[in-house]
Amino acid sequence: KAGVTQTPRYLIKTRGQQVTLSCSPISGHRSVSWYQQTPGQGLQFLFEYFSETQRNKGNFPGRFSGRQFSNSRSEMNVSTLELGDSALYLCASSFNGVGAYEQYFGPGTRLTVT
Amino acid sequence: GENVEQHPSTLSVQEGDSAVIKCTYSDSASNYFPWYKQELGKRPQLIIDIRSNVGEKKDQRIAVTLNKTAKHFSLHITETQPEDSAVYFCAARISGNTGKLIFGQGTTLQVKP
Fold this sequence. Notes:
The complex is a heterodimer.
Chain A: E1 5-7, E2 10-13, E3 19-24, E4 31-38, E5 42-50, E6 53-57, E7 64-68, E8 74-78, E9 87-94, E10 104-105, E11 109-113
Parallel strand pairs in A: 2-11
Antiparallel strand pairs in A: 1-3, 3-8, 4-5, 4-9, 5-6, 7-8, 9-10, 9-11
Chain B: E1 4-7, E2 10-14, E3 19-25, E4 30-38, E5 45-51, E6 56-59, E7 62-67, E8 72-77, E9 86-94, E10 101-103, E11 107-112
Parallel strand pairs in B: 2-11
Antiparallel strand pairs in B: 1-3, 3-8, 4-5, 4-9, 6-7, 7-8, 9-10, 9-11
């Protein structure tokens, strides 16, 4: 099976702009979770989508949002970008059925805000 | 609150030695504990995991142990090789219908040839 893919791989944006990142999960996986990775804060959970519904949300401001489509592909959006939003954004897919908790990560999108 | 503490933050060993990384979790409802290896510039890769109904799991040179009473779990790497050099993350999943993982801060392992 093909792995988790993310596009774009790199982005440079200016403060105040907005950005949309995309994640395509492993075929058959229904859950997509998003994480922000920074050197100072490590890996932090943003939110999870399952069957087109947000099932969990982390402690991030409302500027961070997401959605999931019927084919399980997911997008996350960050509005009014701040310098502190510069990070590697990783998505992870999981079948997330009973007892199937393994999450597999995509390569990430490196976002730089200037 | 949900928290995972990971120690040490850096670990340097000689090739062939063993390495141990320890994590402690706060939520007793946690039921799944994966370990990820992240090489520089690459995605985190799932290397081993353990569920709350199991005390130990092995896969070749790596093993994970879980002590539910003490709420801690550990990664053991034996016969370390230079290619084991990477950042290792532990994580915990809270029981329930969720794909949310809480990660430790990571351990940078350096294996010296």
